[in-house]
Structure formats: C-alpha cells, structure tokens
Amino acid sequence: MNFFSCWRTRVLLDLFVDDRLDEAQAGRIAEHIAACAPCRAEADELAPLPSLKDAAPPVPAGLMESILKKHAEEAEAPAPAWRPSPAFAAAAAAAALLLLAQGVPGPTTRGAPKPPVGGQR
Q1: Which region, left, alpha or beta, applies to residue 96 given φ > 0 means left and ψ of -120 to 50 means alpha?
Q2: Confidence at residue 120, expressed as pLDDT on a 0 to 100 scale
Q3: 7: burial class by Cβ within 10 Å (0-12, 13-18, 19+)?
Q4: What is the DSSP code (8-state) at residue 117?
Q5: Could you tell me which residues come within 8 angstroms of residue 14 by beta carbon, excluding any fewer than 6 positions away?
Q6: Which end of the chain is less congested by CB atoms within 10 angstroms, N or C?
Q7: 19, 31, 47 from 24: Cα distances, Å
Q8: Each residue of 50-68: pLDDT tens digit?
Q9: What is the pLDDT of residues 27-58, one digit of tens each?
C-alpha cells in the first residue's frame, strides 16, 4: 500500500467503524483494510468504539446550552491587555546589549609603532 492510500484510509476509519460512510467510500476502505495489515490493525482497535458510545449515558439536558452560553460570555469579554513578562524584558535587554556591544569599537592600532620591514631597525 502507498502512503496516501493509508493516510486517506486512516482519516476515514472512525467514520467507517461507525458506519457513517456512503457505500462507495465504505467499499474502498474495506478493500484497503483487507490488503493492508497496519490499517486493519487500527480498524480493529477502533471497532469497539461504536458500542461503547451507544452504552454511554445520555448527555444531561441543558448541558449543550450551558456550554454555548459560557462560550458566548467568554467571547464577549474584553481580552486582557498584553503586558511583557519579566522573561521577555530580560531577553529584550540582553538583545539590546548585544547590539550595543557590536556597535562599540574595540581597541585600535592606529597610534602603535609599525614593525620594521625587511630587517630595518
């Protein structure tokens, strides 16, 4: 099997084991799983999930509404103002020092005597 075929199959495996694919897609996934041991192993791991989902207790009434309400309240709240952290301030100071150090000239040799050339003293 090629990588793309396995990738496409694994993306759709949860829908396949939950029987939520159309007939054509389910057929292609089933063919791939029959020929590909790694994808078949992953499908076997996912196979019990639909029965676990069906056995789960129902979601309490009003839970979705309360989640959506809380999300809407958080979305409407003003975002906190950005303040630099102490670590950011220290990093900025270190960067500024490095830039400054590169701009400061070191000792020069302009006034130093030149060594003799070709045996002259």
Answers
A1: alpha
A2: 57
A3: exposed
A4: S
A5: 46, 49
A6: C
A7: 12, 11, 20
A8: 888 888 888 888 998 999 9
A9: 999 999 999 999 999 999 999 988 888 888 88
Boundaries of every domain in the chain: 3-55
CA distance 73 to 71: 5
* pTM tops 0.85, yes or no: no
Mean pLDDT check: name the lowest of 3-12, 49-58, 100-109: 100-109
Q: 62-97 as b/e, with b when 16 or more CB fall inside 10 Å?
A: eeeeeeeeeeeeeeeeeeeeeeeeeeeeeeeeeeee
Q: Please name the residue that has the structure tokens 């389910």.
A: 26
Interacting residues of 25 by C-beta distance below 8 A, sequence separation 6+:
12, 16
Place of tokens 């979705």: 64
